[in-house]
Write a structure and sequence with these properties.
The protein is mainly α and about 110 residues long. The protein has a single domain (about 5-100), classed as Winged helix-like DNA-binding domain superfamily/Winged helix DNA-binding domain (Arc Repressor Mutant, subunit A, Orthogonal Bundle), CATH 1.10.10. The chain has five helices and four strands, in the order αβααβαββα. It binds a DNA duplex (13 and 13 nucleotides) through helix 2, helix 3 and strand 2.
Length: about 110
DNA sequence: CACTTGACGTCGT
DNA sequence: GACGACGCCAAGT
């Protein structure tokens, strides 16, 4: 019995809750699911999210500085930036412009 | 089974 | 305020 899939579920749940045109940070999600020090796990889960059944808008999740750290995970680095711009989020140099403005704090599932 | 890597974050300099 | 080092957790090799 491997790991509790609940962890992934929580992360995915939060990701899905991200409103269109908004972005959040891994730490915020990690904190929302009750593991504030497991921000890395959130990112790792995101990478695995592509293998997940459901579609997860991982492009709305960036690191604390708003940098598209996992753009490579989309297959094409441009894809993530494109998706963000498509949702109305200006991205420049792999960084979200006015990140603080588009930042969205996820609701704790707990 | 032990070491390394990884979509991060915080503290210290 | 920028740069560097340490810390966390799990998966892959």
């Amino acid at each position: 019995m491997p790991p509790e899939e609940n962890f992934f579920t929580k992360v995915f749940q939060v990701c899905k809750q991200i409103p269109r045109g908004k972005v959040t940070s891994y730490g915020a999600i990690a904190k929302a699911i009750g593991s504030p020090q497991s921000a890395r796990m959130v990112g790792w889960a995101m990478n695995k999210s592509f293998s997940f059944k459901e579609s997860i808008p991982a492009h709305r999740v960036v690191n604390r500085i708003g940098m598209l750290s996992g753009k490579k995970a989309f297959g094409d680095p441009k894809l993530m930036q494109q998706l963000l711009e498509q949702e109305g989020i200006p991205v420049k140099d792999d960084q979200v412009q006015d990140f603080q403005k588009y930042y969205w704090e996820p609701d704790g599932i707990l």
